[in-house]
Amino acid sequence: MQKVLNREIKELITAYPEVGRVLEEYGIGCAPCSVGSCLLKDVVGIHNLDPQKEATLMYRIEKAIYPDRKISEPVVDMTRKAEPKKITYSPPVKKLVDEHVLIKRLLALIPSIVEFTESSLKVDKNLILGCVDFIRTYADKYHHMKEEDILFKYIDEKAEIIQVMYKDHDIGRGYVRQAVEGAEKNNKTQVKENLLAYRDLLTQHIKKEDEILYPWIDRQLSTTQVGEMFRKCNDADALVGDELPRKYEKFIVELEEKFLQEVTK
Amino acid sequence: MSGCPGSKTIDFSEKTNQEGNETGKRPSQLRQWPIQLHLVSPMAPYFQGKDILLAADCTAFAFGEFHKDYLKGKSIAIACPKLDSDQEIYVDKIKSLIDDAKINTLSVMIMQVPCCFGLAQIAKDGAEKASRKIPVKQIVVGLEGNILSEEWI
Question: For a surface tag, which of A189, A228, B13, B100 has the fewest beta carbons within 10 Å of its beta carbon?
Answer without folding.
Answer: B13
